[in-house]
Amino acid sequence: MVDLYWRLHMEGDQTSLHRRVNSRGGFAPDAPGRIAPGVRDGAPDGFTHLDYLAEVALATEDAGLVGGLMPSFPHTDDPWAAAASLAAETSAYRFMIAFQPGFLHPVQAARMTATLQRATGGRVVFNIISGGGGPSQLWWGDRVDHDDRYDRTAEFLDVLKGVWHGPFDHKGRFYQVENAKLPDWLSGQPFPEIFFSGSSPAAIAAAGRHADQYLSWLEPFDALAEKFALVRAHSATPPKFAVRVDVLARETEDEAWEEIRHGWAARAARETEHGDSVGVQRGESFLAGAGDGFRDREVQPNVWGGFSELRDGPAFGLVGSYAQVAARIDELLALGVDSLILAGMPHLEEARRIGAHVLPLLKGHLS
Questions:
Q1: Are 54 and 60 in contact, with CB atoms under 8 Å apart?
Q2: Residue-wise pLDDT tens digits, 110-145
Q3: Best exposed site among 179, 208, 243, 337 by fewest CB in 10 Å?
Q4: Is 45 helix (H, G, I), strand (E, B) or coil?
Q5: What is the pLDDT of residues 42-82, one digit of tens each?
Q6: How far from 45 is each of 41, 251, 325, CA to CA, in Å?
């Protein structure tokens, strides 16, 4: 059985892939056609960014998805605060909170997490990221080198788990604690499932120690299978596997590609941030030599590597008819994928579309 998540927008939402303008959600006040925060007759209409975020979460919950990934970048809202705000809006929805361990002390992270677990009835999930380097990493004030960031992440999780079941003593390279433990009234909460991201050897080694689910961006399927095999080889107890997948699905394949064609024609030149992310480097390598036509980035049937030109985020996703997208998802499941984090823009309408037209074709796989 597969767990299906949806990406929640933590940075505002585009109305389509045709225009890179956040016109709903977020806090930019002057975008045309703004939905939330909204203005009527020159005054706020009371429908806030959080209301829209809750509407997306409820739509995905109604569609049968188990929860939402809450990304964390310099340009996004804070996922911890957002999860706490949304907890009362949903009943069973899992909040997959993305965070970089270097920016929290593990004792504080344990207390925050246990508090949120108690408040939500155990609905917190971790998406552990260690950072892609470059200007974004410096925005956080973090100058730790690539491989050292993964060493820090692994030690952070050692301490976090120790504190969770404390008392715990630790004297390591990055953290030192003595007799650290949770308050009695927070102890005994379920420890969050860990989705661990990273494609480098250092990341795979750290994932082998801590990942419940190894999370990868979508890649050509053969490359994914090779990566999964490498993770298994470096894991004493092999994790499950998860993939983050953008989806553009329509009734017919031609309709789906027509949407891409419009977005491709309207795309604007933009600066690409070059950090030390091996995942980004891998994505670029799969597109080496691709022409400038939008179909030149289709690396295998319905697997398209141009999404990063139309919105912020990873390059690869699925494009096609509802049946084709469902078939490609079935192929991913056959590779050993246990969880999928789906995404589409706008987040609200595309969640409803996927729930109505794609998920019914996968009903035998849903948990």
A1: no
A2: 999 999 999 999 999 999 987 655 556 555 555 567
A3: 179
A4: coil
A5: 777 778 888 889 999 999 999 999 999 999 877 788 899 99
A6: 9, 35, 38
The CA-based dihedral angle spanning residues 178, 184, 185, 190, taken in that order and rounded to the nearest 10 degrees: 70
Residue 304, CB-side half-sphere exposure with 13 Å CA sphere:
26
Q: How far is CA 134 from the centre of its chain?
A: 20
For the segment 97-112, the average pLDDT, to the nearest whole number, is 91
Record the tokens describing residue 309, joined without a space.
């030109």
Quick one: DSSP state of residue 346?
S
> What contacts 24+ positions apart, CB below 8 Å, involve 288-295?
294/257, 294/260, 294/261, 294/264, 295/257
At residue 73, the pLDDT reads 76
Within 10 angstroms of residue 209's Cβ, the number of other Cβ atoms is: 15
Cβ atoms of 259 and 17 within 8 Å: the answer is yes
Residue 311's contacts (CB-CB under 8 Å, 6 or more residues apart) are 14, 17, 20, 345
pTM of the entire predicted model: 0.90
Judge contact between 84 and 119, C-beta under 8 A: yes
Count how many Cα atoms sit within 13 Å of the Cα of residue 192 in the half-sphere of its side chain: 27
| 339: helix, strand or coil | strand
Distance in angstroms between the alpha carbons of the first and the last residue of the chain: 5
Residues in the chain: 367
* Strand boundaries in 100-205, DSSP class E: 124-128, 168-171, 176-180, 193-197
